Amino acid sequence: MSLSKRALGVSPSLTLAISAKAKKMKADGLDVVSFGAGEPDFDTPAYIIDAAKEALDKGVTRYTPASGTVELRKAICEKLLRENGVTYDINQIVVSNGAKHSLSNAIRALVEAGDEVIIPAPYWLTYPELVKLSDGTPVIAQLLPENGFKLTPEQLRSIITPKTKAIILNNPSNPTGVVYSKEEIAALAKELENHKHVYIISDEIYEKLVYGVETQSIAACSEEIKERTVIINGMSKAYAMTGWRIGYTASSLELAKAMGSIQSHSTSNPNSIAQYASVRALSDKKGEEFLAEMNGVFKKRRDLMVELMNKVGLDIIKPEGAFYVMVNVKPLFGKTYDGAEIKTAFDVASVMLDKLYTAVIPCESFGANDYVRLSYATGETEIRKGLERFEKFVKGCI
Predict the structure, then answer these.
(1) Which of 243, 303, 331, 332 has an alpha carbon within 20 to 30 A of 292's alpha carbon?
(2) Model-level pTM?
(3) Is the pLDDT of residue 11 over 90?
(4) Rounded to whole angstroms, what are the CA distances from 6 to 9, 37, 100, 139?
C-alpha cells in the first residue's frame, strides 16, 4: 500500500502504547495503578444528563447547522463575556466534535506549506502532529526550569520569523500544569502586538481547573490581539463531558467562516443531543457547584501527590492547574531495576508497568525527554498505592 506523505509523517504515540498495555493488564486481572488518565474521573453532573434525556424526549435528533446550534453558540458568547471579558457574536463561534477537532479546524484554516507554528515545550503531543498534517513546520520553543517552564517575551521574540504563522499557547498547560499569570499573559500579548503576521491559537480547555491562581485569556488583552486570536475550549474537562465531544472556537468572523466551511465538508455538525445538554451545562447555576466540588477534590489530590512525590526524591513541576504532575526521571538513566536497564523516560514507564504494575506516561512525545507525567484524575487510595510503588522503584534502581 502506498500511503500519503502526510499520513506517514504522523509520529506514533508512546502514550497510547503504555496506556493500551496497562488496560490489557488490568483486564487480565492484574492490580494495575494507572496515572495515565487525561480526563476527570467524575461522572457528568445529573443536571446535564437530564438535559440530554430532555433532548431525546423532544426529538432533538436531527442535523443542526454545521457550526452548531444558535442556542449553544449564544450560550458560549454569554460565557465568554461573563467569565473571560471578551465579546463575540454567535457567527464568530464554531462548535465542533471536541476541542481537538476545534484545534484541527483552526490549524487547517490558517496553516499551509512553508508556514511555521511556534509550540512551547513541554506541549500536548497532538499540537505538532496537527501542524504537520497541514504541511506546516512545528518550531519548538524549549521552556526552561528557571523560567518556571513558561514562555517569556524575550524567548518568543527570538524565534519569530517572517515564516511564523501562529503560536499555540496552552494555559493552563498539559502536561506541566503551569498557569500563566495575568501579567505574564499581558507581557506575551504586548510582544505579539509587534508581530502582526502572527496568529495566536489559545488552548484554554483547562481554564476551570486551577488551584489558588487566576487565568486570563490572551484575547482579553487588547482588540488587536483578540482579532488574531482563536480561543479553543470545550465541555470535556470543566464539566466531565469527555465522551460527549463538544469543543468550540471563538475567533474573527473571517476565520470563523473558514473553519465552519471546513467543518461542513468534513464532519458536519457535532452531536445534536450533546449540544442541547451543553447549553444547560453553561447556563445552569448547578455548574458552579459542580466545578467548586471537583476543584476542591483535585486540589486535595494535587497536594497529596506533591507531598508524596517529594518523599520519593525526584524533582517535580508543582502544578497550579489541570491535573498532572511531571517528574524528572533523568537521575535514573544509566541505572537498572531488577535487571532491566533504564536509558530513557520510556524505559522508566515500561519497567514500572512490567515490574510494579504502575502506569506513568513517558514525556518524549510531549517534548520533555527527561520526564514522566502522572495524572491525579484518580482516587486518593490509588495515588497512595501508586506512589508507594514509585518510591520502591526509585530506591531499587542501582
Answers:
(1) 243
(2) 0.96
(3) no
(4) 5, 29, 18, 18
- Give the residue-averaged pLDDT of 188-196: 98
Beta strands 316-317 and 116-121, pairing class: unpaired
Burial 86-104 (b: 16+ CB within 10 A, else e): bebebebbbbbbbbbbbbb
Q: Exposed e or buried b for every residue in 28-44, given b needs 16+ CB within 10 A?
A: eeeebbbbbbbebbeeb
Give the containing element (helix H, strand E) for 248: strand 247-250
Q: What is d(CA 233, CA 100) in angstroms, rounded to the nearest whole number?
A: 9
Ordered strands of the 361-362 beta sheet: 316-317, 324-328, 371-375, 361-362
User: What single-letter DSSP state applies at residue 84?
Assistant: I
Q: Phi first, then psi: give them for residue 318, nearest 5 degrees.
A: -70, 120
Torsion, Cα 160 164 170 173, to 10 degrees, reads: -50
Rounded mean pLDDT, 7-26: 84
C-alpha cell at 388: 508507594
Please determine, for residue 65, whether its predicted confidence score (pLDDT) is greater than 90: yes
- Return the pLDDT at 280: 98
Q: Residues near 50 by Cβ (< 8 Å), separated by ≥ 6?
A: 280
Question: Could you give the angle at the alpha carbon of 365 between the alpha carbons of 362 and 367, nearest 5°?
Answer: 100
